[in-house]
Amino acid sequence: MYVCLCKAITDRDVRQALDEGCYCMRDLKERLGVCSACCKCAPAAKALLNEYMADPSVAALARRVA
Questions:
Q1: How far is Cα 58 from Cα 62, in angstroms, rounded to an integer?
Q2: Which residues does the UniProt record annotate as the domain BFD-like [2Fe-2S]-binding (predicted)?
Q3: Burial class of residue 5 (count of CB atoms within 10 Å of its CB; 0-12, 13-18, 19+)
């Protein structure tokens, strides 16, 4: 599914970026361009990020990286 139509970013793209170390919206914006045009993709991207960060092991790793 497309998360961002402006930049043709899919949920797979977002999930891959999350797997590769993007732990916040700023990281996703820098890496993929999410929320850099009309910002209508923000809720979908944030939902994917929240789902990913709900895993305690991922959240712990993100805290160590930050």
A1: 6
A2: 2-51
A3: exposed
Q: How far apart are CA 41 and CA 9, in angstroms?
A: 9
Report DSSP state, residue 10: E
pLDDT in tens, the chain (66 residues): 999 999 999 999 999 999 999 999 999 999 999 999 999 999 999 999 999 999 888 878 777 766
Where do we find the tokens 């998360």?
A: 3
Taken in order of first residue, the domains within the chain and their CATH numbers are: 2-65 (1.10.10.1100)
pTM, two decimals, is: 0.87
Query: Which residue has tokens 């139509």?
Result: 5
Across the strands, what pairs with 9? Answer: 4
Of 6, 5, 26, 31, the C-alpha closest to 16 is 31
